[in-house]
Request: fold
Amino acid sequence: MIRINCPYCGERDHNEFSYGGDATINYPSLDASEKEWTEAIFFRKNIKGFQFETWHHSNGCRMWLVVERSTVTHEIKSVKPCHPDLQKVVKNNK
Amino acid sequence: MKTRRIDNYGKINRDKILSFRWDKKNYKGFEGDTLASALLANNIGIVGRSFKYHRPRGIFSSGVEESGALVTIGSKDRRDPNVRATTQELYNGLEASGQNAFPNVNFDLAGINNYLGRFFAAGFYYKTFMGIPPLEWGKGTAIWMFFEKFIRKAAGMGSASGLPDPDTYEHAHDFCDLIVVGSGPAGVAAAIEAAEKKLDVILVEQDSLIGGNQLAENDFDNSQIKNQLENLGIKIMTRTTAFGLYDNCVVGLLERVTDHISAPNVNIPRQRFWTIRAKHIIVGAGAIERHIAFNNNDIPGVMTVNASKHYLNRYGVLTGKRIVIATNNDSVYETAHQLSEAGANVTVLDSRTNFEIETNKSFEIRKGYVPYNINGSKKIDSLDISKSETINKSETIDCDQVLLSGGWSPAVHLLSHRGVKPKWDYNNACFLPSDTKENITMVGSSRGLWNKNDCIASGIAGTTDALNRLGISKTNYFFPKPGGWKNPIQPLYEVKYKKSRSKSFVDYQHDVTTDDVRLAHREGFISVEHLKRYTTLGMANDQGKMGNIIGLSLMAELLNKEIPEVGTTVFRPPYTPVSIGALSGRNVGKHFRPLRVTPMHQWNIDHGAKMIEVGLYQRPWYYPKENETLSDSYIREASTVRKTVGICDVTSLGKIAIQGPGSTEFLNRIYSNGFSKLQVGKARYGIMLRDDGIVMDDGTSWRLAENEYFMTTSTGEAAKVMSWLEELLQTRWTDLNVNVTSVSEQWAGVSIAGPKSREVLNNCVDDSLVITNNKLPFMGVTSTFLKGNIPCRIARISFSGELAFEVYVKSDFANTMMDLLWENAKKYDGCLYGLEALGALRVEKGHVTAAELDGRVTIDDAGLSKMASTKKSYIGSAMRKRGVLKNNDREILVGFFPTNLKETFNAGTIVCEKNNIKGQGIGRITSVTYSPELGHWIGIGFVKGGLDKWKDTTLVGADPVRNKQMNLKVVSPHMIDPKGERMYA
Reply:
């Protein structure tokens, strides 16, 4: 079982969370071309090792998180809120 | 029948006699016995029949590795098949029987299979029934399917009762700093060391007693150890198996709470399924003694040496009178000595020629000798032995028992669960655990240590390793070197001797012989993973704990390779079988999944509703009057709505509060249609697309104030839409000042539909002026009060196509609202209507739901192109016409009538062109209903090219599952009031 250290709730089982996806995508603006959107949503790297991915603490504080996780060992290096303002709040509380 | 129990031996409680039944006969044992020890004490040698050949089988071991004594415990709904008699504790009244035999294990008719053995070699069934001519020409599968049930019946183990399980099971959770698996000398030393260093420790032991293999020693007493562990505050869990290791030091445990009790308290669960989250894991799981492959090495009376020691010293059972021990290592000599002291005549055959061992000469040692054939069928008559270099018939020893020790295999299983491959150790002829970066440390004989003092030292070293890795200490430590015998082991896996129709078993439980391994090699199945699957070696529920290494060594020899080059298969959880009941825990019956009900659930039931599950929700399905059937009822309800008025609970819709200055911009980005000009006091139907341009969900959003909206979503997509909105706001549009809150549980909602709905509502609101056609036009929204000062939100929204309103009140007022509305609706001959009538009304109007919006449909496919704004960009706008989504022959939403209006059809019907009825056709019917308005069956669905292409052509609806076929007419999906005159009335 993966254990994720939610910055708000603490360390919890992964079944409290829902997997989102690639956290490194820079989504194009809404009026960007079909080509740019295709690149953004269909083309993915299949990373062996650490990758940044989004998780939603759906059965917890409902925060969307960026999780740095190894696809080989499930080791988690870092967890932080996706929203920059929430990142600041978490930092200030620490 | 003579008993094999001997005085002054064993730790059983001889004051407490237990009676039990074996194969319908009564026997006696003692408290502290296992079923296996009690059977042996009662001189019962044959306890089962083998998997394929139905050969008589006895008890091979004294632990979890048992591959012969698999029995059925209990009867009726408590029948538990394939239980290892060696780990089943005896209790008063225990009922057990042998398996895979008819009429019984002593005389089994299918024993003939033993003589047909050459037909049952590895791969026999596949070759015979699935591949060879003439069956291979497309008929093999059908023939296999026909024969399979007979084959499965003939081969196999015990059978389940087929009745609901009367026992309860529990899921439990715990946390600790250190979990120690195994309570042998290494595990205990590790636990004590850790507890003294103030770690929070759990010690897990699969046996009923702590001590590990020390329980086989005649002078071992665990009471002092137990006291010490308890005084240190260590949580000791006996009868608990660590069946699997998972990521992040999570350990799965199965605790057998009442399996050893004759009449358990019904309030106690039978088993507990534990999830332990530890910071470090120490595994001292011990080692398992191997047998040796040679002819007839499965005759009842064959056992491992260590098992015999257990039976003698723990249970006071002398398993044989004239015992031959065959070995290749030093571990057997203490046992040989003790067996002869207990009164047995013992001979040791040691395959090694050059070694020194200290004994008291109470038994004979024959250096350089190996066994090569057992004579006997249901019991051992004698053993053929030979000098190990030249196997030929040289000598026969009379004996009644053959004990085998082909070396020891450390139990590396749990580490293997983590993907850590063990490494072969030539000196000790076994796989040893490799190091891992994870916080797991192997100690004791599971890291190849054979001496008690080494095991204790390794336990302390293991805890030091744990403390270092947890950052608590920085202390140097070292593990003792693997091994510990005075003389080196000499590898011995198989004694080859050519004899026709003889069988030399590698895997007892699945009847895999050395010849099967050779056959697999001849036929090219040389990778260990292929070998395993082709021969089923190690695939029985003992998972090859005893025999796997023998199979690997044979393959290595055939390939002229070393064992490490051949490799080993990966062990996967569970280490020993886990019952399905324990996996499901309390999530059975009505607790299988959560149940969601609306606040007027009981009100609905009290008013005659029959309920239906929609996702997790219970929703009213229909409200039958007297003897009405479902179809009578929904037709009446739908007609009433069109004629007068109906009331329907729509609380299960998702409801989201959207607040903040960015709300309008937010909605404008997520909906495909424009929201920027929606006025306060108005609602709008909207469609959301996914990033890739496919429709995600539809619903309405009501503008309650400048910066406040109330959004409804479909019942099924509510959670998904909520997560999606949060994702957008937290990851993509972080500058947008919007807050979203799920308020689904806070509001109760009803739909009031029909020409009389305004009159009904008029009688229910405090101020009837607020819902006039002027004040509340179509898609108007108002916040007002129901009579009795109940605050409510009303929107004039229609799903049925009639004049209709949705009314929401705080959930606490749900019943009051229902009473009020229903009292007034009755005055107009109104009705309560359920989901079935709701479906009929919306199909008549061609409104789509989840049946149509199935994640493959674009906004154009659904005939809602008008809803796709061209004046703005929104989620999915760039992608909705990509690639295949802009093809001309996409399936478009249409309505369907049966050509013969008396005919019916079902959802799921495949739409085809005449004379071309095959495959996926050109479309499908997604929703159907009887239309009370039109007086016949109607449907909506999709067809390639849509209405324009097919409106004058008769198509065919094929429904092969229900064996139906009908002609279809394609019509507009808006089958009633296409201009919406009723809605705007």
Notes: Residues 1-161 of chain B form a domain with the Ubiquitin-like (UB roll) fold (CATH 3.10.20.440).
